[in-house]
Design a protein that fits this description.
By secondary structure, the chain is α+β, with helices and mostly antiparallel strands. It is 12% helix and 21% strand. Strand 2 and strand 3 (35-40) form a beta hairpin.
Length: 76
C-alpha cells in the first residue's frame, strides 16, 4: 500500500490516523482503538467486523478473509 494512501486513511471507529503494522501489505492499526485492519491486494479493509484486536494479532490470530454479508445489496 503506498504511503500516500496511508496518509489519508482514518479509523472508521474513532477517526484517528492509521499506522502500518510492520509490513504495509499486512495491515494498518489504529493506535487509539488498538484494532488492526487487514490489507488485501493493497486495499485496506476498513470494516469493524474485519478488524482484529492488537493483542489477538500479536498472538497470531489473524482471522480470515472477510466475506460479503449475505444480505449485502438488499434494501430494507
Amino acid at each position: 500500500m503506498p504511503d500516500t494512501q496511508l496518509d489519508i486513511l482514518l479509523c472508521p471507529r474513532c477517526r484517528q490516523n492509521l499506522l502500518t503494522v510492520l509490513d504495509p501489505q499486512t495491515g494498518v492499526i489504529c493506535p487509539r482503538c488498538r484494532l488492526i485492519y487487514p490489507v488485501l491486494d493493497d486495499v485496506p479493509i476498513l470494516a469493524e467486523d474485519a478488524a482484529i484486536a492488537a493483542g489477538a494479532w500479536l498472538m497470531g490470530i489473524r482471522g480470515s478473509t472477510p466475506e460479503p454479508s449475505p444480505n449485502a445489496g438488499e434494501k430494507r
